[in-house]
Specification:
347 residues; 5-stranded parallel beta sheet; alpha/beta
Length: 347
Amino acid sequence: MPGMDGNETARQIRELSLGHMPHLIMVTAYGRDEVTQNAGNTGIEDVLSKPVGASMLFDTVVRMLGGVGDRPRTASEAPTDTAERLAAIKGARILLVEDNALNQEVATELLQDAGFVVDLAANGQVALDKVRAAAYDIVLMDMQMPVMDGVTATQEIRKEARFRDLPVVAMTANAMRSDRDRCMAAGMNDHVAKPIEPEDLWKALLKWIPPRHTLAVAATPQSAAPDDLPSGIDGLDVTNGLRRLLGKKPLYLSLLRMFIAGQQSATADLEKALANDDWDSAERIAHTLKGSSSSIGATVVQQLAHGLETAIREHQPRAAINESLDALRHPLASLIAQLEQQLPPLA
């Protein structure tokens, strides 16, 4: 902060003769090592990285205030009975509109494993053609795609009276209120944030797909999975990545390999697009990297890619964009190198 930063503020608070000293938690952006290194010396008890998730904020505050401590989360635990209630809509036909290959893999695997029939469209124009050719119970629509984006595709769908009652749910990493308003204005029914949280996706499906069966089917047991997952990689939250996949380790390993293949050349591709003043391509590359890293739990790369995407979208000075790109370069290369070293060989 200007004038007095958080560390200095904490130090001066500690020097006050207060009858009750408040707990101090630092909230800072990723990569601010010079800030966090001094946090412990000024009485700061914990550090949270922006953007702060609700769950992490809650757990930290509860721990600071002496309440119930963090309960270890297992990757495959189901928070509610929502997954079991999906039996009532099992067999529904879903059109998944998504251009990111890694996100396609995640959503398709989750939906098919839950008993849905999934059709895939890589952009809004393909989605429009498929909706006209076949009957679907719901459309899961990404917003940012090449050829035709999700907002335009939804507007085109709503122009035809026969699709008036077809549920269209936005699936997007853009969580700003303005983005949600654009979705609703285009005729979408609901919004599910990415990276995909299975619980949120199931709730949306249950809300918009009419029941087809009575509830009588128990959840299918998970099959055995390999334990050779990567560990100790800075900036990779394996537990959170697995949780979003309902503990499916083979799928998670597959996504990690897809991430390596798809993002190895991301910084080089960004440099080329920026050199050619191709701002749209540069923004799309950064957006794809942000979404892919988020899906596997690569929180550091996700935040750096988000900052770069924002800088490109706002057409900030090239010096600022180059700084964001340079900040991303080493963490991304290090992540890919460590994944390549730790991932088990394919059979």
